[in-house]
Amino acid sequence: MPGRIWEDVYEFMRILRGKWRTDLKKLLEHGQLTFPRPGEGAVIVSIDRIHIPRLHFAPIPPDADIPNPSENGNEQESGGLDGKGNLGDRGIGRGKGKPGDILGPIKKGDGEGEGQGEGEEGKGAGRGRGGDGINIEISPEELLELLREMLELPWLQPKGSRKIKTEERKYTDIRRQGPRSLLHKRRTMKNSLKRELAGHGELGPEIEMIPIRDDRRFRLPHVIIKPKTNAVVIYMMDVSGSMGIEERKVVRYFCSLCSFWLSWNYDGLVEEWIIHDGEADRVSRDEFFTTYRGGGTIASSAHKLALKIIEEEYPSHDWNIYLVYLSDGFNYTEDDLVCKELIREQFLPMIIGADQGGLYNYSEVDVERWWRQPTTGGPPSSVFSPTGNFGKMIAETFRDQERVSTGMLKKMEQVPDAIKRVFQKKAKKEVTYND
Amino acid sequence: MTERKFPTILKLWKYEIERIGRKRGLSFPSIIYEMVNDDEMWEMVTYAGFPVRYHHWTWGQEFLDCKNSGRMGSTVYELIANTDPCYGFLLNLNSLDTQKLVIAHAGCGHGDFFKNNVHCRKISKDMHNVFADHAAIIEQFRTEFGKERVDQFLEACMSLDTMIDFLDSFIDRFPIPRQENQERAKKQLQKIQSSEDLPYYMDEILNPIEFLEAQRKRIEEEEKKEIDVDRGVKIPALPVRDILGFILLHAPLEKWQRAIVYIIREETLFLYGPAQTKIMNEGWASFWHEEILIKEGVVDDAELFPFAQKHAGVLGAGINPYQLGHAMWNDIYLRWNTNRYGSIYNDCVITSIRNRWDEFAMCKYFIDRYGLNTIAFHNAWHEFSLFLQEMQAGRGTYLEEYFLSDYIVTEWLRYERACQTVDKLNVQLEHVQKFECDVDALLQDLVTKETNSEMITPHLLRFKARHDCWQANGSPHELLWTSIELKRELSRMYTLISLHDRINKREINLEKELKIPQEWFVWAKKNPDPIILGQGPQKIFEVRRTHNDISFIDEFFTQELCDQKQYFVFGIKYDEYVPDYGMTDVWTIRSRNYQRVKSFIIGQYLNLGRPQVEILDANFNNNRELYIKHLHDDRDLERKDLLDVLRRLWIIWGKQKTVHLETLETEWPKKRPWWEQWRPPGSPPLPLQEIKRKKIRFSCTNGSEISTLYI
Fold it and tell me: Is residue A377 within 8 Å of B672, Cβ to Cβ?
């Protein structure tokens, strides 16, 4: 009776739909959400498989030390299985090569000790189950509702004539007509009771409260239209050579989550995208999320370009301006000072004032990489400082300036927290640059 | 809705392929095929080949996984379940050549294996109905006791489904209970007897007091245990591997819960049978589809290339059950044809023998028959030399470029018996020709009936006519040959006979004398047991009947096979420089030693790659607590899943009593920094740091918290 399986599939999907709500925090932290462009499509959530626990073997930890007895041709002496050297065997494969030959680097998806291997012409790698999930689509509205409690744009000032409207609906009034979904049940029953009492004269068991058409009361929304405001968010990203694959992944996740949340919440919010290495460029959203250049790092170029854009298109007396800058902090030392001056002299006056809104945020990405960890055999920390100086400089200079915030992104998990920190109602300055 | 009917053209090919399979000695139950589309095939894969199984969301998840993997490019061509009659599912998108391959592979190969292998044969063959019954029962429980309750219990059982004794149907592990009135056999102290001529005081030295004391203690303990067992204080008497079975008998469960445990156990036991012969079964089927399609010529020239592509796709790259099994069956076939086993082969270190084993085998064969250094022996050797020369030159039964040295032994055996074989074949040919007259008559009827389709040629209809006639004649084995095949075989035999004549009439000159090295005689003398040749076909059928994967690999995986197929075990090497990556950890070949490869494969397949656990005590602390022990084989248990399993076991064990699990925990030595790891080239590897293991016990008392205790 083929087709029976679909019942199980629906049941499974039902369970998954319940699951993503409860696991949202974890999913956000692991970057398992893929956001659509503003205003289109659904959010794709990749949920881990649910597995039924069964007893199974633990893989040998990746940093266990089990020397290979058959290295250097000692195979015959050790008899193959003596000395427990075979405990370090993680899989079998097929192909040319002699013991000790390198098959290839260990990639992230390679299953650990998952057994089956593959070798062709001396090249091979373990093949296993990576962290594959099952994708489900959810509507952005659903997600936003849950995210709403987390974030809010700070210092949004009434400004300008165009763009952002904020409106609030509160059901404070009552009327006689309306949609069924807005039926005010208590009022309706009350009316029904009143009518019955008027007929009988007193309360008794024979009274039946069955509302008729005239008894019905409906809620009426009272719309409070808030003053209009304008806002522009300018994202600036460092795409120089020092930004590795992992760094860029974190940065892009940060920006996509940020952009998703802001653009779905604030109608008509304007976004601008800038990437820079030695030079800065104004790019489209798609380019921003796909470009990699790899050159030197001059942060001031991006800041200059941003200021130019603001000057030409978004005059500060009409707009709230949010500047979000992401980098790994490896900037030229002389350029640090230029940036500092740019922010202090030109940008801050635009956003500080009684009726001004806006923010400058700098987030520093510092994903753990081998060459930043002296313990794994990389160069000692004196050659490369463990973090760049840019963040330290900004944090120290603008210590008392509450419109400037800095943050640190060490891994994917910190992205939601970092966003929360940037756009909290009252952004607190968090200095996390103690070594 | 897809057309599920098995197309006529395939039906006709099925007759032909099955005829050839039967001819070659395979025997399979009748097989019913159904055509399914892609989705339905994945569904069948999820349900392990049974259309009706109980509903559960895990199937839904697996199905989606399968579909995903299908999108990534993997295809399932066929699926067949171990029942009688066999139900096979074929993908309706397969081309005709694939369908032929699949029918030969699944129908003949798997069908024969299911019917004859002892591990698959033991199982009840009416499983379609049983599975459907189970589904109905669970559905009934869901309405009766509530969906959530039943599902929770069902899931708990599912996570224990690896804890069964898959040798359950073969071994009665419980000792026969003693009769009431029967006295317990008294245990005696075992003393070492001294011979008479030794002085008396030697008795004390032979049997020191400590030795006797230890024995007495042990006997006392054993007796106490036996008494406990009799009183019912100690349950079970011996450790029990079949945990689900034990729960079924002893856990305080309601009736419906007991039924669910029974259902899970029954289904898993059934599915374990085929699963523990995975390598053998797939290898066997691959071996036979190759034999039937290529060697018997079912595939025509145009289909050869697609066939080779599919065949190589399965067996070519990497290592998988198909590839490994196929290689091993071929290896066994060759080894038993040429006596590449036993001490005569394994202990031999003489290179001239190992390199020219086929010739040595023939030499030994002649020595066994005619004796060493006799005239008859030298004559025989001379004849063999001529025979080999002619075969290599392509003047025998093979073309020059097709001849392999592997063929020489079997070909010689055929050559020896050519005359007798010809007589036999001639008799058979007569029978077959008579039989084919009947077939022709039947064919005429069929052709007049089936005129509507162009695809159905008389050539194909002949397969059906042949099959029907054969069954009407009482299915004798000799009528499975066609006259064409017999004639081909006869012409081959005549070639051999003519070769024999030419050799006997001394028409051929020996171009280069085949010298026998002196050490051959020495080695032959050392191994007086007669050499047995040409046992390949019998051997593979025998192995197919009795082995399972573990014993199969253990017995027949050799260093030569390992070298030939280039298997290796790989592991991790730390901190190597790789271009484009920099310093990183890498995969590296650890060894090509066949023992290492073998132990890894067996580790993967032992108990289907699941940890083995057994119940030590079901009355622990004299409080009906369950005590389970993990049989540690150098591999630790995954901690998180272990705890979850323990919680579920607690549910099944009545939610009242504590459940314990004992295992070992390994402290792996930590990676040393690279400057310590470096060694000068050529020096011995670093010594293994000590691996410490601690005994640890997990106890689940209330279903959520788990306490750990190092003991």
Answer: no
Contact criterion met (CB < 8 Å) for A92 and B159: no
Q: Which residue from A171, A197, A192 is spatially nearest to A182, judged by alpha carbons? A: A171
Residues on chain A touching B349 (C-beta within 8 angstroms):
none
Structure tokens at B185: 């056999």
User: Given its phi and psi angles, is residue B608 left (phi above 0), alpha (psi -120 to 50 degrees) or beta?
Assistant: left
A114 touches chain B (CB under 8 A): no
A133–chain B Cβ distance below 8 A for any pair: no
Question: A58: distance to nearest CA of chain B, Å?
Answer: 4
Structure tokens belonging to residue A316: 């500060």
Q: What is the DSSP letter of B104?
A: I
Q: Are A8 and B138 in contact (CB under 8 A)?
A: no
Q: Does B689 touch chain A (CB under 8 A)?
A: yes
Q: How many CB pairs under 8 A join A and B?
A: 284
**Any idea which residue has 């004649």 for tokens?**
B473
Give residues with Cβ within 8 angstroms of A230, minimum separation 6.
Answer: A159, A160, A162, A163, A164, A270, A314, A318, A319, A320
Q: What share of chain B is helix, strand, coil (3-state, %, to 5)?
A: 55, 10, 35
Q: Cα–Cα distance between A250 and A258 in angstroms, integer?
A: 12
Residue B666 CB contacts under 8 Å (≥ 6 apart), including other chains: B636, B691, B692, B693
Tell whether ipTM is more than 0.95: no
Strand-by-strand arrangement of the A33-34 sheet: A33-34, A43-48, A133-138
Q: Do B8 and B446 touch, CB atoms closer than 8 A?
A: no
Structure token digits, residue B392: 């290599």
* Secondary structure percentages of chain A, helix, strand, coil, to 5: 35, 20, 45
Side chain identity at B281, as an amino acid letter?
Answer: N
pLDDT tens digit at each of 435 positions of chain A: 568 899 999 898 888 888 887 888 788 777 778 887 766 778 888 888 888 899 989 888 877 777 776 655 555 444 445 556 677 788 888 888 887 788 877 765 554 433 333 433 333 333 333 346 777 788 887 787 777 766 655 556 555 545 555 666 777 788 888 888 888 888 888 888 888 888 777 777 777 778 888 888 888 877 765 555 677 888 888 887 777 777 788 888 888 888 887 777 676 678 889 888 888 888 888 888 887 777 777 888 888 888 888 888 887 777 778 888 888 777 777 777 888 888 888 888 777 765 666 778 888 777 655 444 444 444 444 444 445 677 777 777 777 777 787 777 777 777 877 777 776 644 444 444 433
Residue B120, Cβ density class (10 Å: 0-12 exposed, 13-18 middle, ≥19 buried): buried
Å from B111 to nearest chain A CA? 23
CB B117 within 8 A of CB B544: yes
pTM: 0.78
Contact B565 A117 (CB under 8 A): no
The answer to whether the beta carbons of residues B506 and B445 sit under 8 Å apart is: no
Structure tokens that stand for B687 in this block: 């010594």
Torsion over CA of B417, B418, B423 and B425, rounded to 10 degrees? 110
How would you class A325 by CB atoms within 10 Å of its CB: exposed for 0-12, middle for 13-18, buried for 19 or more? buried
